[in-house]
Write a structure and sequence with these properties.
Layout lengths: L5 H14 L8 H5 L7 H13 L15 H11 L5 E5 L7 H7 L4 E6 L2 H12 L5 E5 L12 E7 L8 H11 E10 L14 H10 L4 E7 L2 E7 L2
Parallel strand pairs: 1-2, 1-4, 2-3, 4-5
Antiparallel strand pairs: 5-7, 6-7
Helix pairs in contact: 1-3, 1-6
């Protein structure tokens, strides 16, 4: 189990079984006991039942090393005392899982447009990860409340969005203090990447949203931008 974000995998397993209507396969105690109170043996029992019933948990495997852009963003967030965060386009959880694992006190909202990603994350919530909430929405049209989170993260997201200006404006509106962006720093062959967002272009986008304080860094083919409000 050391290969997994164990409690997240267990939560997703429980939530998935509930969604499938197969919760009776687990004893009531294992279904409802808080994650922190489960023993190693109980966690393994839950995961075994999930695997036997076709629940895919590979997204919850730990890697030996976090992606450099994820490490860079986590390092920034450690320094600002974040209490609430909206993560846009959480996808498979490449950033979200290590963030929640380390920042256990932070209230996190995940925003995604893909049903399978929303289902995976909602399974975690239904299985016991209670500092996470999940919203199926497009950042270009979302109605999340103004200044509802300290930080909004858009990691490997903006290059996919047709109305990138509206996405930036909405992210700025949601954030109290910071919007953090990572994007590819050069052209690639991914057909889903419809923009190459340079420093100059990001400065333009955030200026149009009313934010002029933006700093940049770079890691292994990716640009990291931190836009500060106020």
């Amino acid at each position: 189990m050391e290969r997994y974000y164990t409690h997240f995998a267990v939560a997703a397993a429980r939530g998935n079984l509930i969604r499938q209507g197969k919760q009776q396969l687990l004893p009531a105690q294992l279904l409802h006991l808080p994650l922190s109170q489960l023993t190693t043996e109980q966690c393994q029992q839950i995961l075994d039942v999930a695997h036997q019933n076709g629940v895919k948990l590979h997204h919850f495997k730990r890697t030996n090393r976090l992606l450099p852009r994820v490490t860079k963003v986590l390092g920034f967030l450690k320094g600002i005392g974040v209490q609430s965060l909206v993560d846009v386009g959480s996808g498979r959880g490449v950033f979200l899982l290590p963030f929640i694992d380390e920042f256990t006190w932070v209230s996190v909202t995940s925003l995604d447009i893909l049903d399978k990603r929303v289902d995976m994350l909602q399974d975690m919530v239904n299985g016991g990860v209670f500092n996470l909430s999940v919203v199926k929405a497009d950042i270009s049209t979302t109605s999340l409340a103004s200044s509802s989170a300290d930080v909004v993260t858009l990691l490997e997201v903006l290059e996919h969005i047709p109305n990138v200006q509206q996405a930036v404006c909405n992210a700025v509106n949601i954030a109290k203090h910071y919007v953090v962006v990572t994007v590819p720093s050069k052209e690639d062959d991914n057909p889903e990447h419809i923009h190459l967002l340079t420093k100059d272009r990001l400065i333009e986008l955030f200026a149009a949203a009313g934010v002029h304080n933006i700093s940049f860094d770079g890691v292994m083919g990716h640009l990291v931008a931190i836009a500060k409000k106020g």
